[in-house]
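Hey, I was hoping to borrow your eyes for a little while. I'm sending you its amino acid sequence along with the backbone structure tokens. Take your time with it, there's no hurry, and the full record follows here.
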Amino acid sequence: MTIKWFESTTTTKFKNMIDNIMRNTYGVLTNRCSVEDILEQYTNEDAMFYGNPYEITVEDIDEVIEYFENTEEYEKCQELLHVKSDVMANGLTNK
């Protein structure tokens, strides 16, 4: 019984952590917030991002898009596709 509770809790914590990582990255990619804003929100905790938020790659953006496809948040996917297009066209990174 204890093992099932541990596995369930661990899985939930892991899923929440991944969700926070992707939402942090989405916020920075779409200029809704800065890396510094995210860091301030996580006082005494580790703020995490998918990849390096200062040097985001097209592959990183694709992974974030895939995450939001899986959560069926298609508006976010659309926005990220625009960001990806800008990065590809201009060689931009989020700095």
User: Anything to note?
Assistant: Residues 9 and 31 are 33 Å apart (CA to CA).
